[in-house]
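User: Design a sequence. Structure:
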């Protein structure tokens, strides 16, 4: 079953890469990004965790997706924040250390821009929460290659040499006008693409 699924996904990506791409602006920020969504800088979140196997490792990796809505009176009032974290912490490499280095979401849709890093320029698309949160690896680039939106970690997230010793990405996120639904998305590992489930805006 896995092989045909990978072939279908490969064909979809081949079509996608034939279309023009547009890069999203990726910046690093801290937990204070929550202040855009709340006048008290405190938000109430909803999480969903999808486990997936990593070839060459024991234990399951996880994609954690998180959503919360901008509260009345905040800069992003009514908008929906979507955050993701690729976690290989539970995975132990058997003969080598497997890794994950991309997340791909089909037709994520329009991205709202804000000043996430506090430089006074409100043109940021994607943010990494690199301070005051979990993880050690950041998304370094993001591109919309229709119909896919890719989040790329040029320094991959690796499994550990023992269970619990693996790495995690930072939470990385972006904002939409649309409320979340659970959808299929894809994590790229050293052995290929793996399907997972997470929060994203609904398909158009």
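Assistant: Done.
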């Amino acid at each position: 079953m896995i092989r045909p699924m990978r072939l279908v996904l490969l064909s979809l990506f081949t079509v996608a890469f034939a279309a023009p791409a547009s890069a999203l602006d990726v910046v690093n920020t801290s937990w204070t990004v929550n202040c855009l969504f709340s006048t008290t800088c405190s938000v109430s979140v909803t999480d969903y965790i999808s486990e997936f196997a990593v070839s060459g490792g024991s234990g399951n990796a996880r994609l954690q997706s998180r959503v919360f809505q901008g509260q009345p009176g905040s800069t992003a009032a009514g908008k929906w924040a979507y955050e993701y974290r690729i976690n290989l912490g539970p995975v132990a490499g058997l003969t080598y250390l497997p890794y994950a280095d991309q997340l791909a979401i089909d037709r994520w849709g329009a991205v709202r821009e804000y000043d996430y890093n506090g430089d006074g320029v409100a043109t940021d698309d994607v943010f990494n929460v690199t301070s005051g949160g979990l993880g050690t690896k950041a998304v370094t680039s993001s591109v919309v290659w229709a119909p896919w939106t890719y989040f790329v970690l040029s320094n991959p997230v690796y499994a550990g040499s023992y269970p619990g010793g693996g790495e995690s990405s930072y939470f990385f996120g972006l904002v939409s006008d649309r409320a979340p639904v659970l959808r299929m998305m894809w994590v790229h590992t050293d052995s290929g693409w793996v399907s997972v489930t997470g929060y994203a805006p609904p398909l158009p």
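The radius of gyration is 17 Å. The mean pLDDT is 92.
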